[in-house]
Each structure stands twice: as structure tokens, then as C-alpha cells.
Amino acid sequence: MSESNSALPTPILLYDGVCGLCHHMVGLTIRLDRHARFHYAPLQGQTARILRQRHPEIPEATETIVLEDAGRVFLRSAALLHAARHLPYPWRLVSWFRWLPGLLCDPAYRLVAATRYRLFGRYDSCRLPNTEERERLLP
After folding, report:
1. Is this structure's pTM higher than 0.70?
2. What's the mean pLDDT in 40-68?
């Protein structure tokens, strides 16, 4: 199976594989996602490379979380707000803010992204998934 035409599940959250905050976010989302809808992949990995071929708007920069959902791509705060639609109540309420323009939400997102390593640490490599996470984490 070639990289460009391989079938990938959806929705997929792409995150910084060495970011402590991102690992906490993935762990929280896995616990909240009772129906196991999400799959996860590091921005540094093979899945992200395949998705970049399909969606050139996905940046190489690791400070951007990306949601690919049914062929649509959301970046930064829009990715988080659109992902909340798939979570149970009360977390789903956050998705109501997805209609706000990025000009309002992205400055706060960029501030957190710029300080995330100082506040939450950085791994030397992507951490190994536990048993529950293994089937939902993509390379």
C-alpha cells in the first residue's frame, strides 16, 4: 500500500509528538471519547506526511494542532473547537465556539503554543502508548 493512497481513519488529530501538553491532551481525549471516534498521530510521523500530501495546508510546524475530519482540515483553535463536537456533554458545549473567527481564538492558542515546552515539558521522543491507546495511535 503506497503512502499516497492508503486508507486512513477519520477523524485524526495530529499533535506535536514530543510536547508534554499535547500528550496530556491526547490522554484526556482518549478517556473522554467513549465511542473511540478519534485516532491520533504525531506531526513528526508517517501519517502526518501522508495527510500533507493530500492537504498541503497542513504545516510542517509542530506548534499547530491539526484535525482532519472527513476530508476537511482544521488548524489551531479551530481544530480543538471542531474536535469537541465528537466529545460527550459537557465537553461538546465547547464546540459552539467554533463559529468564532480565528482572529479571536488563535491569539490565545498561539500564546499557549509558544510557552508549552516551558510549562509542560518536552520528551526526547514520542512516548510509547499504553494498551488502551495503542490501537488509536497511528505512526
Report:
1. yes
2. 92
